[in-house]
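Below is a filled-in request sheet from our internal design queue. Each sheet records the structural input a requester submitted and the sequence that came back. We keep these sheets so that new team members can see what a complete request looks like end to end.

REQUESTER: design group, bay 2
PRIORITY: normal
MODE: inverse folding
CHAIN LENGTH: 156
BACKBONE (tokenized):
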């Protein structure tokens, strides 16, 4: 079993205001905590001393265990959904996926835009931010990664 962490109110405050002046290592890890990744996935994303970093964030009150995930099992074969019936995704879910993908591609360099994306309340507010994200990804990861991001998030 692996813990799934989420930011506490103190952690969210630190991301928004830098009030507690976390070290860059801890701040970068805090940005990666999204309430959906288990600690195994986070250990793959956190460059140095992942276990110690997660422990430090938890002991200082920036993150908490949201749930415990069971170890991955072999995936069962599931028939794909019919092509004519795409699943309708809520705006909040779409926005969250876009922010996570952007964070994964840019890390702390994209933090300011990621926060603006999280605050968007409509597709009209999010669309220009996605365009900016595309440009930032070009600089951070290259044209192909940016085009993949755009293809994934331009169709909401």
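RETURNED SEQUENCE:
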């Amino acid at each position: 079993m692996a813990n799934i962490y989420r930011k506490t109110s103190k952690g969210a405050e630190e991301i928004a205001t830098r009030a507690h002046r976390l070290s860059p290592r801890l701040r970068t890890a805090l940005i990666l905590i999204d309430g959906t990744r288990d600690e195994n996935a986070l250990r793959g994303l956190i460059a140095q001393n992942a276990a110690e970093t997660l422990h430090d964030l938890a002991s200082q009150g920036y993150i908490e265990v949201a749930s415990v995930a069971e170890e991955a099992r072999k995936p069962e074969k599931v028939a794909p959904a019919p092509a004519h019936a795409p699943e309708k995704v809520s705006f909040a879910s779409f926005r969250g996926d876009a922010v996570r993908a952007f964070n994964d591609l840019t890390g702390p360099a994209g933090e300011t835009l990621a926060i603006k994306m999280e605050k968007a309340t409509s597709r009209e507010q999010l669309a220009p931010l996605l365009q900016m994200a595309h440009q930032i990804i070009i600089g951070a990861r290259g044209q192909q990664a940016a085009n993949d991001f755009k293809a994934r998030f331009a169709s909401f």
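SHEET NOTES:
- The longest strand covers residues 63-69.
- The helical segments are 9-17, 24-32, 39-45, 50-59, 91-106, 111-119, 123-141, 143-153.
FILED BY: M.R.
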